[in-house]
């Protein structure tokens, strides 16, 4: 069948790849399967129920879930095939942002996963005139449950209406509005059509490797990234399109257990997760003691010196793989074909290390506004340190100032209710301005160097690209987060959030008392001196004007909840600078006001 709209993917998968475990979610400690046939039937019931609630094409329905689950998939199908528009929302944003988004989109109904989110939305509801009702996925006393909508749709009398509405939906019709929680200002509603996302799914499909020995029914995906983000959502459709079983992880805290249970072949990741996984591996390897630690460190040396990425080729590489790296693969379930990395830049060092350990990572690049993938590496064409070749159906143009601009079917329709911004983000010849700086090398690989808006100029007139410096700095095991500052100042400085857990282990090994709380640890002179050596080493790789002259350790963990990171773990630079204004003034010798 022809795939032109999002809901076509579900029907395609049901016809071509029928299976018993299309989606699998754990409820009360038990994995519960939903077959492809049952998925489509439930989607139809939701469609019929929504129509009986008075939902019409173009109406907005918000979906908010703490962890992705089968109910979200069913709602997405039921909403899309009657021409309604889904508004997925991050669970971690503030109640004020809920009010803003719901009012901006004029949301009619909201579906939430659990009690905490229900309370958050109930707090916002009095300020949202358009919001007619809230339904929950969990069974909560006194709350309307999504089962009520399913029950409304149990009568198939209006299925013809669902079918007729589906037939009228065009690929160019709006499918979803995704509000990006940017590093500054109010969230922007990114309007994505069916064509935007479907074209990205089909173009990205060629880049996903398959194991020819596996039947589609044997291919498992573990999904844990927020599905309200377009990166995970596009992959959700892509894996459906291939008939792979999608298991929804319970939470980031239970990832280890879920990996052992599911033994996935595919997972999407963000660089921070890769860094965390490696830190855990390193701590375990070095704390084993004696011969085990020596073997571990020796194997890391073999990995680092390996010339050709891929399978072990020499005797030492075979031994290192057998003794150490085979255990890394077992820790990820033993079946991983590839990890797909996006959202931020991945350290070249870690990328190479995991590739050489037999855990391939396909790093890509894109934005919510591009549905999202612009480019991605593949097994056939891979170059570490780049984000791969541009997708076949897109055209990328590097502007004179180095900004990456893109044109093609997956580029969004525009920002909702924001014509002024829409006129600013497109060039005269119709290319979308990504805001990223980069270049395409002579082999066709795209390399990202920084965010245009995040570059700044010192008082000496020198431009600084902070992301480049920060990504290099985070290769240090002592540094969890770092933000380079210095706009209009005479020199670059930095806020550093130490990896407090690693710092504790380091202090124990060296019999140092640096305290136990983030506040105490950040005041440790010994730790600051040690991190100073990491900064000194980093500076040897930088131009004289880029070198970090001073830094301060921040006394707390930067998080989404405290407003210092976006839901996709990007730095909220303005908020961080304001939050640590005393440290900023200390570094630059300004008087605190």
Automatic annotation (TrEMBL):
<dbReference type="GO" id="GO:0004467">
    <property type="term" value="F:long-chain fatty acid-CoA ligase activity"/>
</dbReference>
<dbReference type="GO" id="GO:0005524">
    <property type="term" value="F:ATP binding"/>
</dbReference>
<dbReference type="Pfam" id="PF00501">
    <property type="entry name" value="AMP-binding"/>
</dbReference>
<dbReference type="InterPro" id="IPR042099">
    <property type="entry name" value="ANL_N_sf"/>
</dbReference>
<dbReference type="InterPro" id="IPR020845">
    <property type="entry name" value="AMP-binding_CS"/>
</dbReference>
<dbReference type="InterPro" id="IPR020459">
    <property type="entry name" value="AMP-binding"/>
</dbReference>
<protein>
    <submittedName>
        <fullName>Long-chain fatty acid--CoA ligase</fullName>
    </submittedName>
</protein>
<keyword id="KW-0067">ATP-binding</keyword>
<keyword id="KW-0436">Ligase</keyword>
<keyword id="KW-0547">Nucleotide-binding</keyword>
<dbReference type="GO" id="GO:0016020">
    <property type="term" value="C:membrane"/>
</dbReference>
<dbReference type="InterPro" id="IPR000873">
    <property type="entry name" value="AMP-dep_synth/lig_dom"/>
</dbReference>
<feature type="domain" description="AMP-dependent synthetase/ligase">
    <location>
        <begin position="13"/>
        <end position="416"/>
    </location>
</feature>
